[in-house]
Amino acid sequence: xxxxxxxxxxxAAAKPAxxxxxxxxxxxxxxxxxxxxxxxxxxxxxQTAHWxxxxxxxVAPQKKISAPVPLKGSLKEEEEDEVKxxxxxxxxxxxxxxxxxxxxxxxxxxxxxxxxxxxxxxxxKLIASFTVGKWQSxxxxxxxxxxSLKNLTQLAGGEGFNEFFRNQFNGNEATYLRWKExxxxxxxxxxxxxxxxxxxxxxxxMITKSEDLVKLRALAxxxxxxxxxxxxxxxxxxxxxxxxxxxxMPPVVEKKVRGKKxxxxxxxxxxQKLEIFDACAALVxxxxxxxxxxxxxxxxxxxxxxxxxxxxxxxxxxxxxxRSLIMSTAxxxxxxxxIEKLRYLVKRCERALGEENAVTLETR
Length: 364
What we know:
This protein has four domains: 15-60, no CATH class; 80-132, Zinc/RING finger domain, C3HC4 (zinc finger) (Herpes Virus-1); 146-247, no CATH class; 291-357, no CATH class. It is 47% helix and 5% strand. It has 14 helices and six strands. The strands form three sheets. A two-stranded antiparallel sheet has the order 1-2. Strands 3-4 form a two-stranded antiparallel sheet. Strands 5-6 form a two-stranded antiparallel ribbon. Strand 5 (254-257) and strand 6 (260-263) form a beta hairpin. The radius of gyration is 25 Å and the shape is globular.
């Protein structure tokens, strides 16, 4: 066996981080993760809150050197089989089924399943439609579809970047510069930070698992309807933005009052909370794009309740979220109930915003 497959000597210990690993926390750490012995926290509270995300990359030190470093093209057969179509066992999985969202078949077999009116092989739900793309099964729930991969590859190719944008916007210099600024924020397609051998799709997937809001928001813009039209990647990025914002919220402070513990009341109009509710509203649009109506409604309700708490029931954002929620759940009501809810909302808008800004009465 080639000795180069094993590290010749243990890597030098990394310099301890000066701050707690919990996003946004600037307190010096005192506790260390007992598993990886690398990530450090200021308290058990922050360590517990961060575990959901840290566990995805947490590896015990002995496991990092207990196995040989895999060489390029040396995947085992069973690992390769994981990305093969479960029907033909030959083609690579490249179809994502709707509405269940599973990805276990190739395009040809998926089309045949639909022709025969067969259900999804995994959950047995009927297949309404499917999209074709590249699914990274080793990343878990994160997927990067061919639309974005093709465009990003072209963008990252030096002169291909300029050619792509100028063709995309037909010489519109202002739009070209705006999108160039967004792409520059991603810092992908080069070896400066991530290494020359890391595939471009892996660089993008690393962003979707990171806590860098600047890069996440830049990626959200690029996969929007205006540009890449990549609905699957849009949902992944918007969900990650929401996760990072929630993680950055400081823990609830408790104080003792006359021998009893009482939660300290927060002031309204908390900018961090409003940012979270805005992220929920953005995630609604992404979920609607992929026709995930259950999640869409859940985030609608969260945004509406949050706006009511922070801004009050008569704020424009609260009223718009209420209107959208009524429209998205119209199937639950009779025509009379549906129209009555809208009429009541119109009256609220007239009182709060004036008649000229009130929403119009929509019907089904």
